[in-house]
Amino acid sequence: MTGKLTFGYLYDFRNPPQWQQRWESLYAEILEVVSWTEQVGFGGAWVPEHHLADDGYMPSPLIALTAMAARTKTIKLGSAIALAPLYNPMRFAEDCAVLDILCGGRLEMGLAIGYRKRETEAFGVDFTKRGRMFDEFLQITTRLWTGETVDFAGQFYSLTGARLMPPAPRGRIPLFIGSFTDKAMERVARYGDGFIGSGDLCDLYAEKMREQGRDMTSAKVRTTELFMVAADDPEKAVDELAPYFHHVNNSYGEWFNEGGGVEGLKSMTLDEFKASGIMQIMTPADAIAAIRAKQARMPLDHVMMMMPPGLPAPRFVEYAQLFADKVIPAFR
Predict the structure, then answer these.
(1) Which among 194, 193, 195, 191 is positioned nearest to 180, based on CA atoms?
(2) Residues sharing a CB contact under 8 Å with residue 78, sequence separation 6 or more, in sequence order
(3) Are 168 and 217 contacting, i.e. CB atoms less than 8 angstroms apart?
(4) Does 164 reside within a domain?
(5) Which of 267, 319, 330, 332 is the 20 to 30 A CA-CA neighbour of 129?
(6) How far apart are CA 94 and CA 102, in angstroms?
(7) H or E element at residue 45
């Protein structure tokens, strides 16, 4: 793999009731943090998408990314991930093309089909058909980005004379596709510029790339290390950070159990969470060793951590500064 390894954070813009702020203040604070991370050496800022969340989990990643684009100059920006079946492919392709122009060619989108029935139902989308919708979506969107005028008659989308103006400036927005399953990983290998998700699935990704006849030297993996933090005193950091990451763990645990058939995190008490080992709180030296071990196993392109919801920005900045000072230089 060519190119240096980069690091960034995911920002879900949540506002949990136990740490409630004014929405305007919270959004402004996060945008300031994003700008700061660019200045100290981080390489990416990423926005996920969920709907119907009581804590206000970001439902409109492209709008949030536009605000980030106005406050940054060099870091990569993108979704991680956007829920493709909830978008019209023509509108999505247009919005991404405009956003890529606004940010100077820094947009890199992460997409997946989603796993929550409540979300698809709220949008009038058949949960059982979202995979087939995603395949059509990808065919249309990638053709539009190349400048093609698209006529398409599919099961879910029908377009006549669709084209982008202004065009996508690079001819394609890089696509990183998320997957939990064997079948979905075929989609990653067929359509994606890389895989975004758990590093535990990198072997499956490599297998599907080979099956598609694609060269693994072009493969890229972006791991979502949402619970990774570097700290000089990991034990003290666990006590401070556990409540915020516990909220993340339990909300995902509830969503995974809504009937979508996806196994993942499970709800638990705070003490159970602290003892579970889910948090990866380690010294800078241990973080470097852990990341290098991942590099040895996969074509690692970017490591994506997160700003946990509720954690005061000054405290987050202290942890991120330590990572910037003591971990990032080891990968330059």
Answers:
(1) 195
(2) 44, 46, 47, 65, 107, 108, 109, 110, 176
(3) no
(4) yes
(5) 267
(6) 12
(7) strand 44-47
DSSP line for 58-95: -S-HHHHHHHHHHH-SSSEEEES-EEGGGS-HHHHHHH
| pTM tops 0.85, yes or no | yes
Summarised one tens digit per residue, pLDDT across range 128-141 is 999 999 999 999 99
Give 136-196 as a 3 state SS string. Answer: HHHHHHHHHHCCCCEEEECCCCEEEEECCCCCCCCCCCCEEEECCCHHHHHHHHHHCCEEE
Tally of domains in the chain: 1
Please give the pLDDT value at position 47.
Answer: 98
Element (H, E) at 114: none
Does the residue 251 lie in any domain?
no
Tokens of 109: 């989108």
Print the domain residue range for 12.
6-235+283-331
* Among 312, 255, 304, residue whose Cα is nearest residue 280: 304
Does 230 fall in a domain? yes
Structure tokens at 114: 């989603």
Rg from Cα positions in the chain:
19
Q: Which of 97, 186, 172 is nearest to 142 (CA)?
A: 172
Encoded tokens for 155 = 């099961």
With residue 288 as reference, give the H or E element that holds it: helix 284-297
Average pLDDT, the chain: 94
Task: Give the separation between CA 280 and CA 227, rounded to whole angstroms.
Answer: 6
Instruction: Kindly provide the b/e burial profile for residues 46-84, where b requires at least 16 CB atoms within 10 angstroms of the residue's own CB.
Output: bbbbbbebebbbbbebbebbbebbeebeebbbbbbbbbb
Residue 2: pLDDT over 50: no
Question: Per the structure block, which two tokens stand in for 324?
Answer: 């910037």
Q: Tokens representing 317?
A: 């900045």
Residue 258's alpha-carbon distances to 129, 262, 264, 332, in angstroms, are 17, 9, 12, 42
Task: Read off the CATH number of the domain in which 139 is found.
Answer: 3.20.20.30
Q: Is residue 255 part of a domain?
A: no
Q: What are the CB-based long-range contacts (under 8 Å, 24+) for 157-166?
A: 157/88, 157/89, 157/133, 159/89, 159/90, 162/90, 164/93, 164/94, 164/97, 166/97, 166/98, 166/101
Q: Is the pLDDT of residue 262 over 70?
A: no
